[in-house]
Each structure stands twice: as structure tokens, then as C-alpha cells.
What we know:
226 residues; mainly alpha; 9 helices; 3 strands; 4% strand; globular; DNA-binding
Amino acid sequence: MAKAKQSESRTLAADAYRLIQEGIRSGRFKPGDRLRFADLQQLCDMSVTPVREALARLTAEGFTTLDDHRGYSVAGLSLAELRDITANRQLCEGEALRLSILNGDAEWEARVVAAHHLMSRIPQGREDIPSAMREDWEERHAAFHTALISACGSPILLEICAKLFSRADRYRRVSVSIAGASRDVAAEHRAILERTLDRDAAGAVHALRGHYQRTADALEAFFEVT
Amino acid sequence: MAKAKQSESRTLAADAYRLIQEGIRSGRFKPGDRLRFADLQQLCDMSVTPVREALARLTAEGFTTLDDHRGYSVAGLSLAELRDITANRQLCEGEALRLSILNGDAEWEARVVAAHHLMSRIPQGREDIPSAMREDWEERHAAFHTALISACGSPILLEICAKLFSRADRYRRVSVSIAGASRDVAAEHRAILERTLDRDAAGAVHALRGHYQRTADALEAFFEVT
DNA sequence: GAGTCAACGATTTTCGAAAATCCAATGCAC
DNA sequence: GTGCATTGGATTTTCGAAAATCGTTGACTC
Lengths: 226, 226
């Protein structure tokens, strides 16, 4: 009887979800890898049922794929998908940002400024910072982008954006080493922030779309080589 | 030992998914209803595991909601959500249609024309047609809208649109009786078709957005009364 | 009478094993 | 040697029961 202690969450299935997702995002499980239940049960220290539920959720979010009676695998990465994700993020987050600028109040502005500040306190481009710090930056980076669109007023749009963000995350992590090389990411973020606070919707959306485009281009260059 | 015969699909979980979704869309399970495993097991004639997997999928798609340790319920319907779904369909399907017009070839045009023809052969506005026929029309209606955007070149966008479509479907079914009352839905579809074949992207997108707006308005009127 | 707490019943969640399915390897006919 | 059916092992999928959890009832105190 495996006696997993349900450390942080309310169900074992939720723990399994986190563990497996982490394994995929960190690269422990590589694209295309088959995910055997026996292995995952051992990793998560629990029975098959919660693992199965976790995989169902991960599949719905595009992290894994399911072949009937052949089990689950880690979803593959491809240039085509990277471009597709980018295009849809530009569309959806662009619109969400536009709506936020239209609807957002002073509290929203405060959230955006605060999130940006937290992110700017950690240098991202440097190579020598410990990975724990990098992890921290990723988190604050995500928080900044979430704050930007948080006043759009559309729960569904926010959900779509969140899913696209976490899907894009896998691509970002593949190529951490080259990410900040020749770009001034901080300046791009500042530009988005300034135009947002100026309530310049068109300018802010343009800056955001450009930001994503440059991120995708950098990753694409990395992919070509590999 | 329940011996479900796995009629059409490759796994029992897939059968359960279909059965429960049908139960929700048909109104057998009403918004807010709690979905007890005991009931669903009896309905589907299978054990708890595949039912659980089906509910996980349905939850990811917005048909049901999950409270930890309190089980699943049918997602509620609300005016706010209807408006939200409509707005996002206008955004996403609008863009998908624009891209399709940009990229689509003659084969795509043929698919669109064919789908429209099939749909136009069934009168939708009439009250006295059997529900089986109405079911048929719904199917062809969905096929028409799918065909319109099928050449957009973005699998992710197509997936988003499909999910939004099936979510909107629940609202449509609540109010079948008033649907075609004071509108000429067929004319709206024709307008979309014509502008699409003319490769008039802006016009086609405008017509599509208007189509969804009017659909939502009609449903909204129904909701207000109820 | 209002409030707290323990025990119960209903329900979900998880388990470990059985059944079903797939893939690869083997044997056989031609 | 090639093609086809068959068997075996590995893996997924499903089962039925046990464990955990929640909401409620009822008793008890203040």
C-alpha cells in the first residue's frame, strides 16, 4: 500500500498532475517519450487511478497525446506548432490586452505596475544566475503577462490565454541558453508597460505582438540548428 | 460484473463521454445538477473508472465543473457566459474565416459550397418538423461552419473554435422553440457564403460576426423571460 | 436558545488485481 | 525466402471494494 502523503493539494490526482507536468516542462520526459503507467506510479508514489486522471487533464491541455490502448506520450514539439501557438497568442492576448486597456481601472494599473516591478528585480539575461532564480523569473514573467490582461472581463479569453501560455512555455524552456542573447527583453516589457499605462491600446497591442514575434523568432533560430 | 459491450468506440471511457455529453446537451441533466457516480455508472452500465475519465474530459471542455471531494456538476448557464462565448466566437472564428479566405484553395471552396447545400435542404424555421430532422440540421449547420474555417491553416485555432461551438450549442438547445422566429437565418448563411466565395474577407467576417450577434441576441431575449 | 463538537451516512477518491488489448516474435505453409 | 496465422509478454483499461472526505444530524454545554 503506497501511502502518498498528499502534501500540498487536495487530491492525489492534482499532485500527479503537477508532478507529471513538471517532468514534461523540465525536460525529464522528452517530446515523443512514451509515458508508462508503471513508471509514473513509481514516480508519483500512488496507484493508477489518479495518474490516469492527471494524464487526461494534461492531454486536454496539449501536453500529452493519447492513442487508444497504446497509452499516453509526451506531445512532440515542432516548428509548425510553435508558429501556430505564437499566432494565436498574438490574436488572443492582443485582444485581451486591448479590452483590458478599455475596461481596466486604477487597481488593475496598480497590479500591472507591481507585477512589472517584481519581474524587473531579477536579471534574466545573465548566464551565471542559479536556475532557482531563473525559475523565479519565469514565474514573475508569467504573472506580469497575466496581470496585463486581467481586466479584459472575459473569463473564457483568459482561460484560452493561460492555456496558450503554458503550451508556449515548453518551447521557451528548450532553449533557455540562447533566450536573452541579442535581445533586450526588459526594454520590450517596459515598452508594453508604458503604452498600457498611457491607455494607448493600439500601441500596446502592437508592442505585445512584436514581443511574441521576436520570442518566436529567437526560438525558431534555435530549432533550425537542432 | 457489468458487461458493457463497447458498442461503437474503442474504449468504454469514450462511450461514457458521449453518453454523458448527450445527457447534458439534451437537457436530461440540467444546469447545476449534481452528477453522482452511482447514477452515471448505472446509466452507462460500467464501473467508476471510465465514468471518471469521461467527466475529466467534459470538465476540461466546460460542460461540467469539479469541486474537490464534492464531485462533478453540470456547468450552469448564464447570460454573462453566453455573451462571453459569443464575443470569443466572433474573435476566433472571425480570424479563422479571414485566414481561410486568404489561404483556401478551390477544394476548400467546394467543401463550403457542398456543406451549405446540404444544410439548405432542410428547413430549419418550421415548427412541425420532427426532432430527428432538427438534429440533422444541427449537424449540417455545424458542418457548414466547420467547413468555412477549415482552410485557416491553424490546428490550434480550429480546436478553440470547435470547443466554443460545442459550448454555445448548449445555449442554442435551451431555446429551440424561438430560434427561427423572426430571423431569416438562411439568408444570413447565404450572405456569409457569397462573400466568402467572392474572397471578400472583411465582408464575410462582418457577416459572420453579425450572424453570431443576432443568434446571441435572440437567445438573450429568451433568457430574460425565463 | 445559541453554539460547539463528535459520530454517522452519503459520496468521492484511491487502491490492487483482473480482463482486454496491442505489438513483436515465432512457427508454419507455400 | 515470403506471407500469414498464432502465441507470449508487456501494457493499458476496467473492475469492485476499501479508504478518505464532506455535510449533516443530534447530543451536549454554556
